[in-house]
Specification:
By secondary structure, the chain is mostly helical. It has 2 domains: 30 residues; 62 residues, no CATH class. It is 72% helix and 4% strand. The protein has 5 helices and 2 strands; from the N terminus they run H-H-H-E-E-H-H. The protein has a two-stranded antiparallel sheet. A hairpin with a 2-residue loop joins strand 1 and strand 2. It starts with a helix and ends with a helix. This is Putative transporter protein. It comes from Pseudoalteromonas tunicata D2. Keywords: Membrane, Transmembrane, Transmembrane helix. Pfam families: AzlD.
């Protein structure tokens, strides 16, 4: 049963990606849908990092002993200024390492 579920989910994922990536299909994304889809990556990334930074075992952790918060803030500032993913990652990880 588990293998069947994995295979079916792989087929669903592949077919949804295939529709958007294959150029010979008579399917075009309109400008409104393109604008709507431009928000999906930031929404998914926010849904990933917010619980990691702000939650500890299901509880909100906003104290000064949480090394995730300053590291995330530094990473946000560096990302906004440099637009370089490598430098942003290095800065955030360095701050987190030294605070931890």
């Amino acid at each position: 049963m588990m293998l069947t579920t994995i295979i079916l989910m792989a087929c669903v994922t592949f077919s949804s990606r295939y529709l958007f990536l294959h150029h010979n299909l008579p399917f075009a994304v309109g400008p409104k849908l393109q604008q709507f889809l431009s928000y999906s990556a930031p929404a998914v990334l926010t849904a990933i990092w917010v619980p990691i930074v702000l939650l500890d075992e299901g509880e909100l952790k906003l104290d000064r002993h949480n090394p995730y918060i300053p590291a995330a803030l530094i990473a946000i500032v560096v990302a906004a200024r440099t637009k370089n993913i490598y430098f942003t990652s290095l800065a955030g990880l360095s701050v987190f390492y030294f605070l931890r």
